[in-house]
Design a protein that fits this description.
- One of its GO terms (biological process) is signal transduction.
- This is Inositol phosphatase.
- It comes from Streptomyces albiflavescens.
- Pfam families: Inositol_P (PF00459).
- Its cofactor is Mg(2+).
- By secondary structure, this protein is of the alpha+beta class.
- The strands form 2 sheets. Strands 1-2-3-4-5-6-7 form a 7-stranded mixed sheet. Strands 9-8-10-12-11 form a 5-stranded mixed sheet, with helices on both faces.
- Helix 5 packs parallel to helix 6.
- The N terminus is likely disordered.
Length: about 270
């Protein structure tokens, strides 16, 4: 079999796999939507963790068997706080309730994500927003889409005219990282038009891919937070690096996703 035909077969297989992955995240999202509406009260960290786990388990009970059937030999990552490189091979990187704490507080910013990583490169991703019914998808080399409509990053070429965003450091983050987050927000307040700060990271990255905001940055972070959005932004024509402008990998200590016209300015601001 020729190399060209082999490549075509792999692409077709991955396209079919992406369609099935999108169906799986929509099903998990429907289950989480049924649990959404009332603020979940908790009195201590133990109760908080229990409530978060209940949402995760609801989605995972749907996602894990479906995705495992699709790729039985792929590894499985569901800890949204894990970071760094993965072992060789294929891995499902899943965030069953991205923005889980927002869900508990009856806030609308949450999603279900599933990303297939092959040899430490994201190959395909599906992100579903249950409250709007939107599903964002990307497959390497084929573009990024919102419910089948192509996505494109913004054409903005001036950081001073840009809406930018970041998310806060994760719980129990190192003090140095927390302070770096704060100083970066201050720097952007001087240089950008509007600065948005909220969790989860994935929703900001969706907005970069869709051209709604012009740049997103984050220090530290985890694979499940960043891989889906990084692939969507790249496939939508955006530029991905670390905060210093170096190539980004899951081992990087920061991420910057931006429209090409403002990427260099954003790096300069974050590097001050």
């Amino acid at each position: 079999m020729s190399e060209t035909l082999q490549t075509t077969d792999v692409a077709a297989s991955d396209a079919d796999l992406l369609g099935q992955t999108a169906i799986a995240v929509r099903a998990a999202g429907s289950a989480l939507r049924e649990r959404f509406g009332e603020v979940v009260r908790y009195r201590n960290r133990e109760e908080l963790m229990s409530a978060l786990a209940a949402n995760d388990d609801t989605a995972l009970d749907i996602l894990r068997p479906r995705l495992t059937r699709l790729r039985p030999d792929a590894g499985w990552v569901e800890d949204e706080l894990d970071g760094g490189a993965l072992p060789p091979g294929e891995w499902w990187v899943v965030d069953p309730a991205e923005g889980n704490v927002n869900h508990l507080h009856a806030l609308p910013e949450w999603a279900v994500t599933a990303t297939l990583v092959r040899e430490n490169q994201p190959v395909l991703t599906a992100v579903h927003l249950p409250l709007t019914g939107e599903t964002y998808t990307a497959l390497t080399g084929t573009g990024a889409y919102l419910d089948g409509r192509p996505l494109h990053v913004s054409q903005t070429a001036d950081l001073g005219l840009s809406i930018v965003a970041t998310s806060q450091a994760r719980p129990d983050e190192d003090e140095k990282v927390v302070r770096r987050v704060g100083s970066s927000i201050t720097a952007m307040l001087f240089d950008a038009l509007v600065v948005r700060t909220a969790v989860p990271a994935t929703l900001h990255l969706l907005n970069v891919a869709a051209g709604r905001i012009d740049a997103f940055w984050q220090f530290a972070g985890a694979r499940a937070d960043l891989l889906p959005g990084a692939l969507l932004v790249t496939e939508a024509g955006g530029q991905i690096s670390d905060a210093e402008g170096r190539p980004w990998t899951p081992q990087s200590e920061s991420l910057l996703a931006a429209a090409p016209g403002v990427h260099a300015e954003a790096v300069a601001t974050l590097s001050r």
